[in-house]
Design brief:
This protein is α/β, with parallel strands linked by helices and 301 residues long. It has helices at residues 2-5, 27-40, 59-73, 88-101, 118-131, 142-145, 151-158, 174-183, 197-202, 217-229, 232-249, 256-265, 282-296, and strands at 9-13, 18-19, 24-25, 44-47, 79-82, 105-109, 136-140, 163-168, 188-191, 207-210. It has an eight-stranded parallel sheet. Strands 2-3 form a two-stranded antiparallel ribbon.
Length: 301
């Protein structure tokens, strides 16, 4: 489990920079973003997931994003590849490709749209785990998929070799203890909800896959360090300082707001999205600019 344990902490759900109005990848911007994340103390990256506009990426683009991120990270922090698909065979193929490229681990979100039963979710996860040779993290995010991994199903999955933990984006702290009891010791419990990141770690979780860390990686890394070191007052203070930015990011569908905020924060970064996502409204941009200004004044420190 030592390799799996390295997958916790301050993890960034990395965006995918595009150019030419979303027509192609901006590999230079991606490499620069990864290098900045590493320098700021981020402890791991997740590429190819929902925040990366994963459903709009071609298979060659998925491969390129992973290769660029791995090269820019240079082995200093783990790079986790989101390889999920509502088709189990596709998820297995993506998982094998990501592992062959050098991903430290892979991430499988519960299948969307076809909404399998709990037995179907178990068999889906079990099939991917049987095909992979590196740690597999599962993710539940019912707001996007319409389906949840229940504790009893997680208990069955946690018993399988290769399944290392769960990224829970529900923001339901009461679930933390239930999952811990069901899955047993050694099973990673990582938050996928920025609003409860500090509380999740203070209650025994092992980190957060964060969207806001695209913008403030140093603050998110400091939050996780403080929470796991027992400096709960500092962790709470950082969390409170992040809340205006989180509120602004939540005004429209991720990753539209976070990519626009990155464009405001990093000169030369294009906020380009791929349809069906479109640029956030002017009022959202104004809220993001105000929240970023507050961040620059040190309110997340």
């Amino acid at each position: 489990m030592s390799a799996a344990r390295r997958l916790g902490g301050a993890l960034t759900a990395l965006v995918t920079p595009f150019a030419a109005g979303g027509a192609r990848l901006d590999e230079r911007a991606l490499g620069d973003l990864v290098a900045w994340q590493v320098a700021e103390g981020t402890e791991g990256l997740v590429v190819g997931g929902p925040t990366a506009e994963g459903p709009t990426l071609t298979e060659p683009e998925r491969d390129r994003i992973l290769h660029v991120a791995l090269e820019a990270a240079g082995g200093r922090i783990p790079v986790i590849a989101a390889t999920d698909s509502p088709c189990t065979r596709t998820a297995i193929a993506r998982t094998r490709a990501a592992e062959a490229a050098g991903a430290a681990a892979t991430l499988a979100v519960t299948p969307f749209y076809n909404r399998p039963t709990q037995e179907g979710l178990y068999r889906h996860g079990a099939a991917i785990a049987a095909a992979c040779g590196r740690p597999l993290l599962l993710q539940t995010v019912p707001a996007r998929t319409g389906i949840d991994l229940l504790p009893d199903t997680l208990a069955r999955l946690a018993a399988l070799p290769g399944i290392a933990g769960l990224v829970d984006a529900r923001g339901d702290l009461a679930r933390l203890a239930a999952v811990a009891r069901a899955a047993g010791p050694g099973f990673l419990m990582v938050s996928g909800d920025d609003g409860t990141a500090a509380a999740h770690t203070m209650m025994g979780g092992q980190g957060c896959v964060s969207v806001v860390a695209n913008l403030v990686p140093g603050a998110c890394a400091a939050l996780q360090r403080a929470a796991r070191d027992g400096d709960h007052a500092r962790a709470r203070a950082i969390q409170a300082g992040l809340m205006p930015l989180l509120e602004a990011l939540s005004r429209e569908t991720d990753p539209g707001p976070v990519k626009l905020a990155l464009a405001l924060l990093r000169p030369g970064f294009a906020p380009d999205l791929r349809l069906p996502l479109v640029r956030p409204r002017p009022e959202t941009e104004a809220a993001l600019a105000a929240a970023l200004a507050a961040t620059r004044r040190g309110e997340t420190a």
